[in-house]
Amino acid sequence: MNSIRLRPLSRLFLALFLTVATIGESLAQAVGAAPAVSKEGVAPGATAAATPATAVAPAAGGGDAAAIAAGDALFKGNCAQCHAVNDVVVGPALAGIAKRRPMSWIIPWVKNSSKMVASGDEYSVKIFNQYSKQQMPSFQLSDQEITSIVAWVTSQEGKATGPNDNANGTGIKPGEQGPAGGADTADAGAGKYMNVLLIVLVVVLIVLIVTLVIIANIMKDVLRGRKDLDGRDREVLEQRFDFSKIYKSTAVRTIVGVVFVLAVLYESIQGAMGVGLQQGYQPTQPIAFSHKLHAGEHQINCAYCHTSVYKSKSANIPSANICMNCHSQIKTESPEIKKIYRAIERKQPIQWVRIHNLPDLAYFNHSQHTQVGGIECQTCHGPIQNMDVVYQYSPLTMGWCINCHRETPLNTKGNGYYDNLVKLHDKSNGAVPFTVSSNGGTECSKCHY
Ligand code: HEC
Ligand code: HEC
Ligand code: HEC
Ligand code: HEC
Ligand code: HEC
Ligand code: HEC
């Protein structure tokens, strides 16, 4: 056998190239998939926290599994837009909270953190200052609900940090977030593991390629040493690495074509999903009214101005006479306040620009959520009390409504209406918390009529 055939070798190269290309493609898809999920999440921060939690592991075995499951839902419904277990989001990472603080501190803190800060409690003041005096909202949760949130957090600690133990150590402190921070936190646990796997794969492939190139060179040397070369062997010897071959290969063209089509498809789907979305919308209002000043610093109750929010479908915008309750006395000389006077003199309402606006095809009722469901305004509207100018915090998509209905346990305590339903639910499906969707909160006709 005097002619060494190199064809199998070049096939191997092609196979290698294909593998690398496929990995690249799946990487691109993995990156693409992440934002698609956040589109329908409760809120950007919330999905970020929810993804690793669900991706990592189910709640701890043994222990009080029901309490932990309830804590999971409560956390996602109330805390996840500001907290994650292992990452700093708006508030601190909650990992280790049970060791850091006694329950006798955590419970009153969650119920009313600003009261704790005002009381001068040393730790409360310190952490409040550390997070640039951002107020955590108050929650009307029971002691037991808060305990189950802490139980859930504790059950997630070991698990979520498991895969990145060697990369990151356990607790991540505020300053330690990597440069990729924000986006990266989304898939911290599982994501890092995947990244390590991919890097290892790429390294193995590079080693393989180098080895093959060396083998090919040795073979060429062997060929060169011979006299009795036939035409094919000579051709192989004189062969230079030729890019046009790769470029002309149908396989490569197909792959490039597929990748291109996928990218275009992904972009157009994202674009289409964004149509009509107004998350982040922050128009300039006719009067420089600041929620930070009124609801934050001066702690005026939301319902003092939005008087109907606990009683009716819509939350009203206060009329000028509510402003005058105070501004007939306060800051009367300010040019902004003069605008209120002018509106009253002209008997014309102030033309506030509407921010939140669901399409008419969807039915949303404030009192059902605030009064009956006991949900804080901030869960849906974000930290209004820190906003100088209000913006739309949540996406207000159908996925956002539905996600929350799937995850939020119904506030059934002291509500006789639910007694029988809870009993029936516990009998048939006791392990799963009684959520809004167990009560039909994901049926089309509840929101569309
Ligand atoms: C709107 C954002 C926001 C929400 C929602 C929120 N928090 Fe916080 N939380 C913060 C901030 C900010 C801090 C830091 C202290 C401060 O600035 O008041 C904090 C601090 C804490 C701390 C103290 C942490 C430590 O390291 O000592 C605990 C415990 C806590 N939050 C629990 C909760 C729980 C439980 C929920 C849900 C029921 C929740 N938080 C919901 C923003 C939030
Ligand atoms: C002193 C009166 C006052 C208080 C207190 C107040 N608001 Fe407002 N709110 C207004 C006015 C006026 C507007 C319309 C102008 C604007 O958007 O800033 C408004 C607008 C809003 C909007 C946007 C409405 C839209 O156009 O979609 C939301 C959401 C909101 N407030 C929530 C809250 C929450 C939550 C609180 C309590 C933390 C609160 N407000 C406290 C007066 C008040
Ligand atoms: C419960 C009392 C109260 C109500 C009601 C109230 N405000 Fe105020 N407002 C205040 C206080 C207190 C200040 C801060 C005054 C200061 O900084 O000295 C203020 C400040 C302001 C300022 C800043 C003025 C400046 O030039 O610094 C504007 C603008 C304003 N309010 C608009 C409104 C509007 C519009 C409404 C009605 C939707 C309203 N306020 C309702 C208490 C109130
Ligand atoms: C479950 C989520 C949720 C909660 C909790 C919530 N809101 Fe809203 N809010 C919305 C949605 C959705 C809209 C848009 C409604 C629409 O366009 O019909 C809205 C609109 C508003 C508006 C504009 C006027 C209107 O009714 O359309 C104001 C003001 C407002 N909310 C204030 C509040 C206040 C104050 C609280 C707390 C007492 C609160 N919201 C709690 C979801 C929520
Ligand atoms: C933060 C969580 C949350 C979000 C976001 C949310 N909901 Fe709800 N929703 C609830 C809870 C909790 C209840 C149950 C209140 C109760 O009856 O105890 C509820 C109840 C309802 C009901 C009554 C269901 C029934 O069984 O009678 C309707 C309708 C509804 N929501 C519509 C919406 C729409 C529309 C949106 C989005 C614009 C939305 N909700 C967003 C938590 C949420
Ligand atoms: C919890 C409340 C809720 C439930 C349950 C719900 N939807 Fe929706 N749906 C909404 C909201 C809110 C919107 C508007 C979203 C937006 O503007 O992006 C919407 C939008 C839609 C749209 C898009 C309309 C358009 O113009 O883009 C369709 C179609 C739709 N819903 C169908 C359904 C069907 C079918 C079901 C039952 C399987 C269902 N919905 C259940 C809240 C709900």
TrEMBL record:
Record-linked SUPFAM superfamilies: Cytochrome c, Multiheme cytochromes
CDD domains: Cytochrom_C3 (cd08168)
Region (Disordered): 158-184
Chain segments annotated as coiled-coil in the UniProt record: none
Keyword Acetylation appears in the UniProt entry: no
GO molecular function: electron transfer activity; heme binding; metal ion binding
Domain Cytochrome c: 66-157
Organism superkingdom: Bacteria
Pfam families xref list: Cytochrom_C, Cytochrom_CIII
Protein name per UniProt: Mono/diheme cytochrome c family protein
Composition-biased stretches (Polar residues): 158-169
Transmembrane segments: 196-219, 250-269
Signal peptide per UniProt: 1-28
Keyword Membrane: yes
Keywords: Electron transport, Heme, Iron, Membrane, Metal-binding, Signal, Transmembrane, Transmembrane helix, Transport
